[in-house]
Write the structure tokens for this entry.
Amino acid sequence: MEKNTNFPPFLAGMVVLGAAIVVSSTIAAVSVSRLRSGDVLTVIGSAKRPIRSDYVVWRSSVSAQQPTLRAAYQELKGYSDRVLFFLRSQGVAGEAVSVSAVNTETIYETVNGISTGRVQSYRLSQSFTVSSSEVDAITKLVQSSAELINEGIPFNAEAPEYVYTKLGDLRVEMLAEATQDAKRRAEAILRVTGRRPGAIRRAETDVFQITRRFSTEVSNMGSYDTSTIDKDITAVVAITFSVE
């Protein structure tokens, strides 16, 4: 999602509409009562929808450290095999799991904080990534993965990342809703003058905000919460109407 760098800065604070309105090409922030045909009025419109994540990515890893490279690899392989067995036993399809190459780190001996140059041990690690549309099943899997730690396996799991994959389609719909909201607001503002909004002279869109459900978080760079399954998505537009 790209941010329009020309978007009015007052969006960041979501100021009350009508407190500052832009009118005509030469007069700014005049009172509503002085609006005339030919002037322009800029208002903010927004649309919000609840969405539920339809895809999840979960990353984890195991590691082993032993005096020899062979011993470290044998230990790591045992850990990795156990993790893969656990994933299969929980119904995770093989194509949903990707396994990284083994990462090797040489640990050197130090004396009084100074390396002696002698190899002390080798630390090997391997990571796993589960990517699936089975959001609820993977969530339960994450919760039950603690049994690996209970077995003594040095299993390190990250928090799952929940995403929504249909933003492209939803974006168009929500921009239309936000534009209609802007028109309704313009009609409400102009109603007291006996005038109405005419043609759209200019339209600018702000970044979408995808936040936790009922969150009031707003970011100028856009928000994309991946920590929760259920989220809210908000679209905001600034529409400039001619005054009729």
Notes: Residues 58-157 form a domain with the Alpha-Beta Plaits fold (CATH 3.30.70.2970).
